[in-house]
Amino acid sequence: MDTAPGELDVGRAVQAAREALKQPSWRSLSGTERGHLMNRLADLVDEHGETLAAIETLDNGKPLSISRSYDVPHFSEVLRYYAGWADKNQGSVIDIGPKKMAYTVKHPVGVCGQIIPWNYPLDTAAWKLGPALSCGNTIVLKLAEQTPLSMLYVAQLIREAGFPPGVVNIISGRGGEAGAALARHQEVDKISFTGSTVTGKEVMRMAAGTLKAVTLETGGKSPLIVFDDANLEQAVRWAHEGVMANQGQMCTATSRLLVQDGIYDSFVERFKAFTEETSILGDPFDGRTYQGPQISKAHAERIMSYISSARNDGAEVFHPRGDLPSRGFFVPPTILTNVKTNTTAFQEEIFGPVAAIARFKGEEEAVEVSNASRYGLAGAVFTKDLGRAHRVARNLEAGMVWVNSSNDSDTRVPFGGVKESGYGRELGEDGLKGYYSVKAVLVNLTDE
Ligand code: ADP
């Protein structure tokens, strides 16, 4: 296992992965045995859970209560889920008449380059490692430069679990150097990337050099539609969670809120009150903290500049009362109301605790405004009308839709986007599809 930044080191990691792919110690393992290794790793992650949660919080700034209750347990849950698939990797027999026979076999894609972001360092790694290992690939995983620590710790656990050398290679390093070297490398068969849309496009261009398989999970500006008949209390809570959790640093944040005329004022009033109530910013190691600092100074400043531009474009800006903590890159939870739907605040991904709210009259308008975006990652709809819920879910241009919730993902359910939010899926059975190739074998059963 390597932990090194430069282009040469990327080459060494790729070489190690290529070599491991040929070795019987990995290649000849049955799916069942691969599953055992993955389960062992999941157990080790749980055993080291407290340490990993503390590292994740230290590195990323998210509240320890969340790292402990969500990020770490989700890592082992994803590994166990895909360990369960490892021995169910079956092909099929296709009946093509009495004189021939055809069957398919699923092969690993090969050496998989995986590039992850800083907002969920452990979990985005698990989403990529899980299906890749389940299918028998080898991996070079590049961590985000802002948050390398938790996965470097997991690197030791991977060794301890008994994975053969070279199967999982973890590298840190800058995106433009280590990430680009990986995306371009001749000996890498597949690139799976999670990050910004701009970088995703660049990765795709580089991967084109050797026609690598590519899966991308990129940006989003997901709508959350609240109809007049919604359970208002429920809508307020989920709307808050959907944009304020994780310091607002979620690609699936439902950051565009569309609220129907009849309840607009009462929704906004309650949303503000709930935001005020939960606005506990500060030390992420303090159990009472809801919101920690943003990932970096530059990122906090970028969010603040989006808030100013919204104000200049005529939006009203609400922040809860109280001062920000004196140390750390904090951004106050922000609610923008009366936002025009063609302005920057409503169209661009802010990646911070900023909700942009606009009003609508009817269902058709809500769907049209929701779809007027270059992104298509997720969407949410709040209504008690079953027919409308399913109709809107069907009509939204998004990879995922929540009905009466938001950002309520599940290991067993595919995750990913359409349009400029990327393609390919992670999690669930669909998450495996990017990690095997199907070989068809045709057998002539005659002497002809
Ligand atoms: P953000 O802007 O949120 O930091 P990025 O998309 O730039 O998101 O980064 C996500 C991941 O992509 C990180 O691991 C980063 O190092 C990597 N990355 C950044 N630029 C490149 C690049 N040109 N080629 C490959 N990977 C990159």
Helix and strand arrangement:
Layout: H1 7-22, H2 24-27, H3 31-47, H4 49-60, H5 64-85, E1 93-94, E2 100-108, E3 111-115, H6 121-134, E4 138-142, H7 149-161, E5 168-171, H8 175-184, E6 190-194, H9 197-207, E7 213-217, E8 223-226, H10 232-244, E9 256-260, H11 261-278, H12 297-312, E10 316-318, E11 334-337, H13 344-347, E12 354-360, H14 363-371, E13 375-376, E14 378-382, H15 386-395, E15 400-403, E16 418-419, E17 422-423, E18 436-444
Parallel strand pairs: 3-4, 3-6, 4-5, 6-7, 8-9, 8-14, 9-12, 11-12, 14-15
Antiparallel strand pairs: 1-2, 2-18, 7-17, 10-11, 13-16
Adenosine-5'-diphosphate binds at residues 115-117, 142, 144-145, 175-176, 179-180, 183, 195-196, 199, 202-203.
What does this structure look like?
The protein is an alpha/beta fold and 448 residues long. It folds into two domains: 5-218 and 421-443, Aldehyde Dehydrogenase, Chain A, domain 1 (3-Layer(aba) Sandwich), CATH 3.40.605.10; 223-403, Aldehyde Dehydrogenase, Chain A, domain 2. The chain has 15 helices and 18 strands. The strands form four sheets. A seven-stranded mixed sheet has the order 10-11-12-9-8-14-15, with helices on both faces. Helix 7 (149-161) links the parallel strand 4 (138-142) and strand 5 (168-171). The mean pLDDT is 97. The site of adenosine-5'-diphosphate has 16 residues, from helix 8 and helix 9.
